[in-house]
Design a protein that fits this description.
By secondary structure, the chain is mainly alpha-helical. The chain has helices at residues 3-6, 22-35, 46-53, 57-69, 88-107, 117-131, 135-151, 156-173, 179-183, 185-198, 202-228, and strands spanning 43-44, 73-76, 80-83. A 3-stranded antiparallel sheet has the order 1-3-2. Helix 2 (22-35) crosses helix 8. The longest helix is centred in the C-terminal third of the chain and has 27 residues, at 202-228.
């Protein structure tokens, strides 16, 4: 990534406000990585990003450190900071973590009815994006569905954990050539889980979710392996 390409981040300066912090810079960069603006393997220009956002290099380095801790960036000695490239083992581990957390949330729900408004909005958003042929939008809505599912636990710590896990998952999505084939089959399955929760049937919802996450793991890993082969090396 060149300094001129980083200049497009100038529009994000307004998000920093007057109290610019490394956490806010990290939020901006995390979103840009999730959107694919900085694809896996991209070298991040310290000079370009700091200049575009109007922050000090020390602040940017702290933001890089935070995102490295979240496993979104990696620092290579004498080369710089890069957006992380996942291996298939990473995809397996991400889904193992998702299954542990998401299924436990559904299993641990109390008595119905549940507060499903945000979950229903995510399902509807994915369906609208599919009708428009916006498969990046479908991907975003699907991530939101799982984030809102975990949010039903009412735990800030679980929300924070899943934010990192789902951000990592999006790194794998960027290595897939056919996002429609990957995401479209899960639209109806999101609605099935929503309908089961609306009916107060946690057992069915968890059963659907277990099968869903196992199939998702297999499809993401197969698509990632088929398109990426050996994970690509870092690039400028």
């Amino acid at each position: 990534m060149t300094a001129s390409e980083a200049g497009d981040l100038t529009d994000d300066r307004v998000l920093l406000g007057r109290t610019s912090t490394a956490e806010r810079v990290a939020d901006i960069l995390r979103n840009r990585v999730a959107e694919g603006y900085f694809p896996p393997g991209t070298r991040l220009s310290e000079e370009g990003i700091a200049g575009a956002l109007g922050v000090s290099r020390n602040t940017l380095r702290e933001a890089f450190r935070l995102l490295s801790h979240e496993r979104l960036l990696v620092h290579e000695l004498n080369r710089g900071v890069f957006v992380r490239v996942l291996a298939v083992d990473d995809v397996d581990d991400i889904h193992r973590t998702r299954r542990l957390v998401e299924c436990a949330v559904v299993r641990g729900l109390g008595r119905p009815p549940y507060a499903l408004g945000a979950l229903a909005d995510a399902v509807a958003g994915g369906e609208r994006a599919a009708l428009a042929g916006d498969w990046a939008g479908v991907s975003t809505a699907n991530i939101r569905f799982h984030r809102e599912l975990v949010a039903l636990a009412g735990s800030a710590r679980t929300d924070e954990l899943m934010r990192g896990v789902l951000a990592e998952l999006r790194l794998a999505f960027h290595g897939v050539d056919d996002p429609r084939a990957l995401h479209e089959p899960f639209l109806a399955r999101n609605r099935e889980i929503l309908d089961a929760l609306r009916a107060g049937d946690r057992t069915t919802a968890e059963r659907l979710l277990v099968r869903y996450l196992d199939d998702s793991r297999d499809q993401v890993a197969a698509a990632y392996t088929g398109t990426a082969g050996a994970p690509p090396g870092p690039r400028d």
